[in-house]
Amino acid sequence: HDGDYEGENVEPNDRKLLCEEWASYGVFYKYQPIDLVRKYFGEKIGLYFAWLGVYTQMLIPASIVGIIVFLYGCATVDENIPSMEMCDQRNNITMCPLCDRTCSYWKMSSACATARASHLFDNPATVFFSVFMALWAATFMEHWKRKQMRLNYRWDLTGFEEEEDHPRAEYEAKVLEKSLRKEHKHKETDKEKLTWKDRFPAYLTNFVGIIFMVSLTFAIVFGVIIYRISTAAALAISSTPSGRSSVRVTVTATAVIINLVVIIILDEVYGCIARWLTQIEVPKTDKNFEERLIFKAFLLKFVNAYTPIFYVAFFKGRFVGRPGDYVYIFHSFRMEECAPGGCLMELCIQLSIIMLGKQLIQNNLFEIGIPKMKKFIRYMKIKRRRSLDHEEHMKKKQRYEVDYNLEPFAGLTPEYMEMIIQFGFVTLFVASFPLAPLFALLNNIIEIRLDAKKFVTELRRPVAVRAKDIGIWYNILRGIGKLAVIINAFVISFTSDFIPRLVYLYMYSENGTMHGFVNHTLSSFNVSDFQAGTAPNDPMDLGYEVQICRYKDYREPPWSENKYDISKDFWAVLAARLAFVIVFQNLVMFMSEFVDWIIPDIPKDISQQIHKEKVLMVEVFMREEQGKLQMLETWKDKDKKKGENCNNHSPKLPRSHSGSLSSCHSYPLDI
Fold this sequence. Notes:
Elements: H1 14-21, H2 34-41, H3 43-76, H4 81-87, E1 94-95, E2 106-107, H5 112-119, H6 124-154, H7 169-184, H8 196-236, H9 241-245, H10 247-281, H11 286-315, E3 321-322, E4 325-326, E5 328-329, E6 333-334, H12 344-386, H13 390-394, H14 399-403, H15 413-427, H16 436-458, H17 472-495, H18 498-508, H19 517-521, E7 522-526, E8 548-552, H20 568-598, H21 604-648, H22 658-662
Region (Disordered): 640-671
GO cellular component, one term: plasma membrane
Membrane topology: Multi-pass membrane protein
């Protein structure tokens, strides 16, 4: 580093300036000194902080719109007819048990709080917000490309081409080992290199390892599902009505906390395993090593972070069966159902706890605590070693000796990775959690200064590396943006009740309102059709005998000829859902491509300046060539005149000797 960053008698230096004007939480409202960051750390790190600044800046409009959507839900919750019908105790809707034997019948009005809370996130404004966020993602990518072009021009990187990397030391060692083996067998070999046959064991290990770790993630999620089912059945035995009414919230909250702890632990494990798998592949260059490491780490961490959320969004409550014919796991655990208001509220809880917990614990506490702990351990080891040599201890330490106590720089992959995973939380399931951009914005305001403080005070100074873009991360961002459109289309159509409400409003409503929607989505079941041993142990728990209970599905009633078969309403809603997915996906994709097309990648003033510089450069070259041409003509004229003078002063000779006269005065011309 340039010098110390704290103390009274410290001379002014760039490190001290960065610490005061950049790596301080008190300047969170100021723009970053990107040019000074680039000067001190190099272009590659400068581009990372520039990208992080642009991303944080673009989260401001997304946060404002998300807050407006949330406030719209709060303002209209008392006018939402379906939730009012669910909360109305006069409807006297008796629901079927949530588990076998130990659970009894229950009133739909007991789920009033969940239904009202669901409306905060499941309302028509969330559809608009999903479209807005898709266009926001496209605009963000275009805005970053323009910002990156400005930085390239300012940092003189427009004509920069990355040189071919030198082979890594590990690769050279493997090649040398292979050459020595062949020489030992007395074979004549050309310049050796590692082929796919040499790497096949590593490729096989990579494939098996990744499949195993993905399967491990699925197994853990399945274990949490078993926990949810068994805990829900255990809590349902509670004799207090308040305990039974809070079963869903308790089970959901504890299961999400378990998921969060597992995700944080597996993230660290998967990061180490991804690095080991990449090392045994022995990539040729550092660039190849980094790209392969990024791919493996992103794949594993993406699956780890989003698998529990995908389960709640698209699988929970889809394969339940019906009363009298439920689907069981291991012949004893009944698949869990969604709440009467749908699974969107539970998806919101899952997403918010995982996102906030991951950012708070993993991204912030780990980034502060672990480097400080490693620095303290390294300092204690050095202090113990130097206590044996008093003279060495009394010497004034050189800068490199002081910096040795700092944590080595491990690359930008962990920094980008946490932001890419956060970008996925902000875009992929934003239909269920409109406040995600706001929490991401608050986290990033701290994250920028936290990363800055870590780079200036906690890490050894990295070797400056030139780069003109953020590399493979841009393609990953574009891929997440495209995937977000598809996932949000399925969340709106299959997880929320937006489509069933539209179908009821325009096909089944008698007066053009949502009155009767809740009753329309519930099917009837005759309690005499329960399988043996599955009926409630206490059928009189509500104080009266129940003959017909209701459950959420589109099926024929028990008095129909084809009782409990899927009704026509189910197929009408399914067709509407699929049609919405197709229309939404193609419309939003088209709008995103239009935004991509209409916004130029290079700002107009930069393109004009580059064009002007090229014209000036061509003019300079033309002027130089014209000067050379004029000089050549001048030399030719002089040579011609001197040749004529030589002919005039010499006697006439035969024509056969005239050639010697032409060389009377000759000048070598080197153009």
